[in-house]
């Protein structure tokens, strides 16, 4: 239930469980937050593939 009291009437809809296929662990994982430009960057390698995700 929510707090403060005004939010107690809202309940969660359910649980979200994400499962991803594939094998191997992520390597060279970095996570950056640039507050000046409001950009979040995540980079990692998995099965010799480089991934880069940016959120604005």
Number of strands: 3
Determine Rg (CA atoms, Å): 18 Å
- The helix/strand order is EEE
Strand order within the widest beta sheet: 1-2-3
What profile does the largest beta sheet have? 3 strands, antiparallel
Gross geometry: flat
Topology (elements, then pairings):
Elements (H helix, E strand, L loop, with lengths): L26 E8 L4 E8 L2 E7 L1
Gist of the model:
The protein has 56 residues and is mainly β. Helices cover 0% and strands 41% of the residues.
Give a verbal description of the structure.
- By secondary structure, the chain is mainly β.
- It has a domain at 25-56.
- Helix content is 0%, strand content 41%.
- It is built from no helices and three strands.
- A three-stranded antiparallel sheet has the order 1-2-3, with no helix packed on it.
- The model has no long low-confidence stretch (mean pLDDT 84).
Which properties best describe this structure?
single chain, 56 residues, mainly beta, three-stranded antiparallel sheet, 41% strand
